[in-house]
Amino acid sequence: MRSLRPAALAAALLSLSLAAPAQTQSGLDRAGFDPAVRAQDDLFRAANGQWLKTVEIPADKPEYGTFIQLRDKSDREVRAIVEGLAAKPQAPGSVAEKVALYYGAYTDLAGIDQAGLKPIQPLLASIDAIKTRKELSLWLGRQQGLMNLPLGLAVYPDFKEPGINRPLTWQGGLGLPDRDYYLKAEEERFAKALKAYGEYLTTLARLAGMKHPEQAAQTTLALERQLAAAHWDRVENRNMVKLYNPHARADLAKAAPGLDWQAFLDGAGLGSIDRLSISQPSATLAIAKLLAEAPLADWQTYLKLHALDSAADTLPKAFRDARFAFRGTALTGATEPKPRWQQGIDQVNAALGEALGQLYVAEHFPPGHKQRMVTLVNNLLGSFGDSLDGLTWMGPETKGRARAKLQSYVTKIGYPDTWRSYETLVVKKGDALGNGERAARFEWARQVAKAGKAVDRREWAMTPQTVNAYYNPLANEIVFPAAILQPPFFNAAADDAVNYGAIGAVIGHEISHGFDDSGSQFDADGALRNWWSDADREAFKKLGDQLVAQYEQYEPVPGKKLNGRLTLGENIADLSGLQIAYKAYLKSLGGKEAPVIDGLTGAQRFFMGWSQAWREKARESRVLQLLTSDTHSPPEFRANGAALNHDGFHEAFGVKEGDKMHKAREQRIRIW
After folding, report:
1. Which of 453, 516, 531, 633 could be cross-linked to 569 through a Cys-Cys bond (beta carbons 3.0 to 4.6 Å apart)?
2. Strands 410-414 and 246-248, how do they pair?
C-alpha cells in the first residue's frame, strides 16, 4: 500500500537533474558538450548536445539524465546496506531485522505469487461490508494514508499559527495524473491515456473475479469524471490564501453536507480535534455531495478497484504486469519495469527511511561536506541580502520585512539531528502487502499523534538518501539531504565556478522559494500573512506576469505549451537562484580574475555548470504527464529560460543581437 499525502503544501520541492560524469580539470563533462552548438544560441544543447544525441533512455525509465543517474547511485548504495543486513541474522525486533524482512518480503516474487489474492481479501471484504453512508464515511477515515481516496486528510502546521499542527483536507480520488486527462479527453494524448486506464481497470476487475469487469471499470470512470470536474486545478492549488479555510469541527457538516464528518474523523483517529481546514471548499462540497448521492454499490466498486491498484505491486504477476502496462508504459512510455530490487529499495525507503538514512550517512557523507555546505549557504544568503539592498521595485518598509525573513532562515544539511523511531512498526517475514499496509498505518498514526500539538522543528520531510532539496515556508527553512551533496552539484575536486553554478544555484533556488509567488505569502515566522505593501505586491506581480509570458512561449511537445502560471514559483526560484549564485561566485573571487580552465573563463564555466546540471531527456508521454502535473518546467527550459534573463550570461559569452539566446538588456526580467 502506498501512503499518499498532499504534495503541494508545506514545501516547494525541487526536482533536480544531477550527474557524476567523467570530469575534466574544471569538473565539467566536456564530452557531453556539442561543439556545433554555440552557447549564445542554445546554452542547454551547448553543454549537453552530444550527450542528448548518444545516450538512450533505459527501457525501465520514463526519463533519463544526471538526476536519475545519481538517484540510481543512491539506490545502489542503499541496496548494499540492505542486502548486507539481510545476509546475516539480526536481533529479533531490531530495526536492522525490520529492514531486512521488509525488503525480503517485497522482493520475494514467488512468495507473492503463491499467496494469490489472500492477503487483500480482508480489505475487499471490508468494502463489501459497507451498508450505510455512515459506514462509508468511517471506512474512508480508516483508510487515510493507505490509498488514493476521494477526500484525503493530512496533518500540517496551521498556516496562520505555524507552531501548532492541525489537520486539513485535500481533494483526491483520481486514477489518472491530473483532472485534465478527464476534462480534456478530446485531445488525442489524453484520450489515449484515458482509454488505457479504462482497460487497466477492466483487467483489475477481471483478475479479482468481480462480476461484469467492463461495467465495473465504467462505473469507476464515471465517478472519477465527476471528481475531476470538481477538483481545483494545479494553479489554484498554489494559492495558499485560498487553501486556508479553517472550520470548527461542529461546522463541518454545514460546510460540506453529505459526508458523515464525525464518522470520517473517528475512522481517521481525529475524532476529538477542535478544528480542521478545508483546502478546496467547492471541491470538498461536491465530493461530499457525490459520496451522499452516488449509489453505494458504485462506491464499493470504485473502492475495490482503487484498493487493487494501490496494492497491485504486492499481488500476483498478472496484477503487477497490468499495473506496469498502464502506469509504466501507457503513462510514461517505459517499456520495462524498474528492477524489483530497486522497487524494493523505494519501498523500504518509504517505510523505514530514516533508519536507512542513518546507515547511509555513516558510509557516504563525509563530515567535512557539512561544514563546506554551511559556508556555501551563508555565502548565498549574504548574496541574497545584497540583492535585496539593490532592489528598485520594492519600497523600504517591505524591504525591511524581507530582510527579517531572510535573517530568520533555518538551514538543515545532510541529515536530521534526531532520528525517527520505528520501535512499534511490525514487519513480518513473507508478508509484502501486510508490511506495506502496516507501514502506512504506522506513518498515519505518527501524523495523527501530532494533531493539536506543537510542531517539532527538528523534523525532516526527506530522508538523507533522497536526491533532492526543499524549502518549507511554514518553518522558513531550507533543507539539503546528504545524497544531493555530491558530484556534479557538490564536488570537492571541482572548480569553484562549476560548484557555484551547480550547488550554488540549488541553494539560491531554495532560498528564493521563500520569496516566490507562493512562499512570499508567509512571513519570517512561517505564518500566512501579508507583509507586503500593496504597491510592492503589484510590482512583484507584474514581474511575475512577464516571466509567465516568457515560459508560455515554450513548446516541449508539439501542440503543448508550458503553463507559465503552474510553473511560476519554480521559474522565479530558478531565475533568482541563478542570479544570487553568480553574485556569490563573483564575490568569492575577491576582486581577482578567475583563471581560464579547459578553454573557458570562470563566468563561462559557471553557466556551463548550471546548464549541465539540467542534463535530461524524457519520453513524450512522460513530458505530457509532467506538463499537466509538475510545477517545474522541463529541464531544457530551466537551463535556457533563466540564463536568457541574466546579464552575466550575455557578458560571459558575448551574446549579441541575432544570437538565439539574445535578449535586450531592458527586456531582461530581474526579480530578486
Report:
1. 516
2. unpaired
* Contacts with 308 (C-beta within 8 Å, 6 or more apart), sequence order: 120, 204, 207, 208, 315, 319
| Alpha-carbon gap, residue 426 to 422, rounded angstroms | 9
Residues 6 or more apart whose CB falls under 8 angstroms from that of 36 comprise: 49
- The proportion of the chain whose per-residue pLDDT surpasses 70, expressed as a percent, equals 96
Helix (H) or strand (E) holding 380: helix 367-390
Compute the distance between CA of residue 412 and CA of residue 414 in angstroms, rounded to an integer: 7
Dist CA 610 CA 566 (whole Å): 23
pLDDT tens digits, 579-616: 999 999 999 999 999 999 999 999 999 999 999 999 99
Peptide bond into 488 cis (omega under 30): yes
Task: For 427-475, write each residue's pLDDT tens digit.
Answer: 999 999 999 999 999 999 999 999 999 999 999 999 999 999 999 999 9
Q: Show the CA angle centred on residue 249, arms to residues 246 and 253, nearest 5°.
A: 95
| Average of per-residue pLDDT across 3-28 | 44
Domains of the chain in sequence order = 12-78+344-416+460-667 (3.40.390.10), 127-310+322-328 (1.10.1380.10)
User: Which of these, 147, 298, 290, lies nearest to 216 by C-alpha position?
Assistant: 298
Contacts of 640 (CB under 8 A, 6+ apart): 42, 43, 44, 611, 661
Element (H, E) at 166: strand 165-171
3-state secondary structure 454-503: ECCCCCCCCCCCCCCEEEECCCCEEEEEHHHCCCCCCCCCCCHHHHHHHH
Q: What are phi and psi of 671, to 5 degrees?
A: -105, -75
pLDDT at residue 490, rounded to an integer: 83
Instruction: Report phi then psi at 630, rounded to 5.
Output: -105, 135
For 163, residues 6+ apart whose C-beta sits below 8 A from its C-beta are: 157, 454, 455
Task: Supply the angle between the helices 43-54 and 602-613 in degrees, to the nearest 10.
Answer: 50
Residue 299, CA distances (Å) to 169, 199, 302, 607 in order: 20, 19, 5, 54
User: What pLDDT is recorded for position 9?
Assistant: 43
Q: Is the separation of the CB atoms in 489 and 613 below 8 Å?
A: yes
SS3 letters across 43-105: HHHHHHHHHHHHCCCCCCCCEEEHHHHHHHHHHHHHHHHHHHHHCCCCCCCCHHHHHHHHHHH
Measure the CA angle with vertex 27, ends 25 and 31; round to 5°: 90
Q: Which amino acid is at 503?
A: I
Distance, C-alpha 467 to centroid of its chain: 11
Report the DSSP pairing between strands 616-618 and 63-65: antiparallel
**Please, are residues 519 and 473 in contact by the beta-carbon 8 Å criterion?**
yes
**pLDDT tens column, 521-546:** 999 999 999 999 999 999 999 999 99
C-alpha 610/C-alpha 440 separation (Å) is 38
Reduced DSSP (H G I as helix, E B as strand, rest coil) percent helix, strand, coil of the chain, to 5: 55, 10, 35
Q: Is the pLDDT of residue 140 over 60?
A: yes
